[in-house]
């Protein structure tokens, strides 16, 4: 049986140095463990076909769907500040692009599908744990309303991969608006290939920033667009307590989606300096450092675009600096607007920023759970009962003092308590993919029990609803359940 995907590929039509043509390496005994049926339908794919044995073979890279033009994309990147001129998809293969039900072009990529010409030391494979982590967290981000790559499927390969220990191998099917990263631009810029930079810029303008094509200076407008989307994205991360963990330039998407869920995690207690990633020893990618790092990564993108800005380098640099200068304002505006909503303020008054900062400071000092504090505050805004918020603070009087000021400020707001509560509940999730839950799901899956994985996905698909039967999923970890370190998929 041949299975046809409605591919309409454009990246594989770019010049040959943009990628390497390479097919996935077949695996021994693929078994589909999860198909995102809703997403399949959205992509114009038949979920029943994908669930057939032949479909599972496609999702494992054992068989190619008709119309696929498999490629590994070339890219470079700054990893923890160090430039690596050639990275590229070392364990991922783009099968092709489809147009989804919204008319948006989407990449369908297999991750963990075998070596490519860009694999340097790795085996091109992925272990089951990181595949499930990416599946869970990317789908949770989607449900939270945050731009992200999606997960279409997870397959176990029937083969083991050697890491510190032997682990079951798996393949994730990732769906993205595109896989073009800041590092893709760096690949061409580092080779002095201005024509490559221009072709790539034209490709992403057509694909992600079509309005920019009409601008007087399209390449400047492209940088403005990427700056705006990244500023908004990082603000959204902070507003839900998300820590990406590896904000290298090769993990910074030009489309503005969250990409590459490695050692990422949501924090439990609010701590601006929080780091989980085992490889981030200096705290470069700590929670509160993320806006600064996003700007650093955007500055690397701007450097690549300089030759397209002007033949006169001084002029080009000045123009780039001007555009990058907008990042701070855009980030702060998005972040502050989000925080105001989190505490139920619809209007803007002097002193709001200080009020919010004082709450965050009290939370940090009193190890308050980030998610629960805001969720319980939403309920307190409705019925006035504050004991559940107070309980989040080691010294509840720290909350009481703040709450008195908050109540006074709310008195100026036109909304009813019920309206305010509903608005706050719509931005303050009850359920996030807490690390200890993710770890427990992975531990069960490695023992072939996927029921906890399914249940966690169900809970996280409606993060803003109370789901009383799953109330325990909102709880922070007990002291012995706390996860202190997360690891990359490598
Ligand atoms: P990532 O951590 O997925 O962002 O990967 C960073 C770089 O390392 C990319 O070039 C990957 O393709 C490469 N890489 C990561 N894991 C492997 C692996 N198991 N085999 C081959 N290359 C890998
Ligand atoms: Mg990466």
Automatic annotation (TrEMBL):
The active site is at 250 (proton acceptor). Coiled coil: none annotated. Mg(2+) binds at residues 251, 260. It comes from Bradyrhizobium icense. ATP binds at residues 88, 90-91, 111, 123-124, 174, 181, 260. Keywords: ATP-binding, Magnesium, Manganese, Metal-binding, Nucleotide-binding, Nucleotidyltransferase, Transferase. It catalyses: L-seryl-[protein] + ATP = 3-O-(5'-adenylyl)-L-seryl-[protein] + diphosphate; L-seryl-[protein] + UTP = O-(5'-uridylyl)-L-seryl-[protein] + diphosphate; L-histidyl-[protein] + UTP = N(tele)-(5'-uridylyl)-L-histidyl-[protein] + diphosphate; L-threonyl-[protein] + ATP = 3-O-(5'-adenylyl)-L-threonyl-[protein] + diphosphate. It comes from the Bacteria. Its EC number is 2.7.7.-, 2.7.7.108. HAMAP family: SelO. This is Protein nucleotidyltransferase YdiU. One of its GO terms (molecular function) is ATP binding. Belongs to the SELO family. Nucleotidyltransferase involved in the post-translational modification of proteins. It can catalyze the addition of adenosine monophosphate (AMP) or uridine monophosphate (UMP) to a protein, resulting in modifications known as AMPylation and UMPylation. Its cofactor is Mg(2+); Mn(2+).
